[in-house]
Amino acid sequence: MEKWDIMIMEIEILEVICGGNGVSVRIVLPKDGGEFVSVKELMDYLDSRNIPFELSALNKGIQDAVASKQAEYGFMISHVPAQEVREGYVLSVSQDKMTATARFYPPSLHGERMSVQEFLNDLAVKKIIFGIKTKEIEQFFAAPEYCTDFVVASGIQPRQGSDARIEYYFNTDLDARPTLLADGSVDFFHLNTICCCQKGQVLARLFPEDPGEYGSTIYGERIKPRTVKKETLRFSNNISLSEDRQTITSEVNGHVTLVDGKVFVSDILEVKDVDSSTGDIDYEGSVKINGNVCANFSVRAKGDIEVSGVVEGAYLEAGGDIIITRGMNGMIKGTLKAGGNIVAKFIENAKVHADGYISTESILHSDVYAATEILVSGRRGFITGGKVSAMNLVRVKTLGSSMGADTVVEVGVDPSIKQEFIALQKQVAENKKTLDALYPVLSSMAQKLSRGVKLRPEQLKYLQDLIATEKLKKQEQESCIMRMKQLQVILDESANARVEVTGEVFGGTKICIADVSMVVKNSMSYCKFIKQQGEVKMTAL
């Protein structure tokens, strides 16, 4: 059988004559955007309605309709009578059960039309219960367009969710990579091995998973979205978790690391050695070094520094204490600086400064200062060569050298401190004199203003200047008094400054107490040096 593809929008059975002329068809050519309707579709429609037709008459009629180019064309397809035909449709469902499409066909000339409710009931019988386009269906029935595919129900695809994720707000990729400098040399000192953090710093944030939303087929079957990955914040001590459990924050100044998905914060940084494997260390907390600190490297810590081995020609600076189990070989360039105390087995060829005390077994050819005491004890207990200074006390077993090495020991207040104290006393007196002179003037002007007296512009300017001066002098006065109190404590503590030798002091050693000094002429044992009557006096220990 020959197949014809005809662009038609409607196919309408105009007349069914029972016992009369038979069946005729009127073809309406498509409007703009109309669809193709095949001869086979027309034949299937006639067969489904039990409408008799002659194939030859159908083929000829369609050919004549196309050739006529008329908007409408009618022709006889059968001389056998037929019953009237109701409005009908063919329903197709997509393979994924997400779309139901209806294709409506018109009734015969005197045939009945379907109602909206009848069609909706049909969908229910077919178990199509979800995504029914009721409004669109009603609009279609009000102005039907036949032989056109019409979506009457649509399912909903599931909304796919997203995996949970964690954002880290610190460097998680720490790796010791030396830097190639512009001159072609390699910097092994400033390496990327430590990530510091501050108290209150947000370390990581959890963005929870989005489970998505279920979809549905037109049959009401739920479609599950893909399974998403969940995450939880994993962390150790010194870290706090927010109430919503989505943010972690450091509780201390220290360093932060990520190990196997777990965040660690410690205020103690522990390393084996400080060398080319670590580079220089600059840390907010305390540093513990289980080995040695190699020459030319530096360690800076806001807390304490503890070294189990030897420090060789390096720079160590701590906000707290410095403890060196085996000692310091400065190699002339090495430096120790502590905001607290310094304890080292030995100090050799180094510069050392402590805002607290210093305790060691020996000091050799070094420049050493302690804000309170220097205690040199133990089996050797000697100070030889260099300069050793303390505010209150230097206690040593053996002082100086039989080989004549220049050794200087200083205790007591530096003369500059006394000078500063005297200068502050003068400043306080001057500030008081100025303030005393200002008070009557300011009081007089305040009274005038209280009486409603209007001041001239130049008087107002003068008053403003006086107020500014008064404020400045008061601030200066408070600062001076506070500093004087600090200096007074130092002066009081150093009143009994002394040098104690529990063994032997060699001739040639220089002893300085505050602003006076003496050079020991002959070796002596078990003695003490103090300031008395403006001179350095030696007494028995």
Profile the largest sheet.
22 strands, mixed
Low-confidence stretches: 1-19
- Amino-to-carboxy terminus distance: 135 Å
Strand content bin = 35-45%
Total helical elements: 6
Rg for CA atoms: 51 Å
What is the mean predicted local confidence, pLDDT? 86
- Strand-pairing-aware structural class: alpha/beta
**Overall strand count:** 41
Shape: elongated
Helix content: 10-25%
Brief overview, please?
By secondary structure, the protein is an alpha/beta fold. Among the domains are: 5-78, no CATH class; 88-154, no CATH class; 165-266, no CATH class; 416-494. It is elongated.
Helices and strands in order:
Blueprint: E1 5-7, E2 10-16, E3 23-28, E4 36-38, H1 39-48, H2 55-68, E5 72-78, E6 88-93, E7 99-105, H3 116-125, H4 134-142, E8 149-154, E9 165-168, E10 179-180, E11 186-187, E12 196-197, E13 202-207, E14 215-216, E15 222-223, E16 239-241, E17 247-250, E18 254-259, E19 262-266, E20 268-271, E21 281-283, E22 286-289, E23 298-301, E24 305-307, E25 310-312, E26 315-318, E27 322-324, E28 327-338, E29 342-344, E30 347-354, E31 358-360, E32 362-370, E33 373-376, E34 382-390, E35 393-399, E36 407-411, H5 415-450, H6 457-493, E37 498-505, E38 510-513, E39 516-519, E40 524-532, E41 535-540
Parallel strand pairs: 20-22, 21-23, 22-24, 23-26, 24-27, 25-28, 26-28, 27-29, 28-30, 29-31, 30-32, 31-33, 32-34, 33-35, 34-35, 34-36, 35-37, 36-38
Antiparallel strand pairs: 1-4, 2-3, 3-5, 6-7, 7-8, 9-13, 10-11, 12-18, 13-17, 14-15, 16-17, 18-19, 37-40, 38-39, 40-41
